[in-house]
Amino acid sequence: EAQVTQNPRYLITVTGKKLTVTCSQNMNHEYMSWYRQDPGLGLRQIYYSMNVEVTDKGDVPEGYKVSRKEKRNFPLILESPSPNQTSLYFCASSLSGGQGSPLHFGNGTRLTVT
Amino acid sequence: RKEVEQDPGPFNVPEGATVAFNCTYSNSASQSFFWYRQDCRKEPKLLMSVYSSGNEDGRFTAQLNRASQYISLLIRDSKLSDSATYLCVKGGSYIPTFGRGTSLIVHP
Questions:
Q1: Phi-psi bin for B49: left (phi > 0), alpha (psi -120 to 50), beta?
Q2: Distance between CA B55 and CA B41 in Å, rounded?
Q3: Is B1's pLDDT higher than 70?
Q4: Which residue does chain B place closest to A43, by CA atoms?
Q5: Which residue of B43, B89, B95 is in closest CB contact with A106?
Q6: Which residues of chain B form beta strands (DSSP E)?
Q7: Beta-carbon neighbour count of residue B11 at 10 Å?
Q8: How confident is the model at residue B28 (pLDDT cuts 50, 70, 90)?
Q9: Are B104 and B82 in contact (CB under 8 A)?
Q10: Phi and psi dihedrals of A42, rounded to 5?
Q11: pLDDT by residue (tens digit) across A50-91?
């Protein structure tokens, strides 16, 4: 089954404790991206990747890192999480990004930073 | 001004009603638009792409009006299961822009 898989689904952590949210897709998509969704603000893009070893900032990259060492994986790293990073996070992929390619989303990671 | 604007609603309609949402956009270089559906606390799922000539998928019709810079979604014969938030998305470059969503509640 074609899918985007993110883990964990729920995560509670403390300020400053490094964490990684994993994302994997099995559709051989070139483009992958991370979003956060907050009430009243909608979906905002954090980082995206057009292909292996090619990443770029989205609208809200501060406090996050990503890597794309393999085509299928695109982990999101919070080196020193803070409470304002409490949010619902979605990973997404598409065939080519840019024009005309719809996004396929993972089922989300709800992160709470205390 | 946000690039993609949607009325947050909620739109409260009875089963069987026809309901329409609009989504206005700015910076019209984009060639691609989409409607996504999002259920509470779940991931957005593609409902339909929006083509310049308009397109229909069962009870759903999407249209694009480039002159007035808006896209629309029409839902006919609403079902209880249509209750969700509908997100308008403007594609283009590598940073798609999402609207904040329109909430639809279909009641018996």
A1: beta
A2: 28
A3: no
A4: B98
A5: B43
A6: 4-6, 11-14, 19-25, 33-38, 45-50, 55-57, 60-65, 70-75, 84-90, 97-98, 102-107
A7: 19
A8: low
A9: yes
A10: 75, -165
A11: 999 999 999 999 999 999 999 999 999 999 999 999 999 999
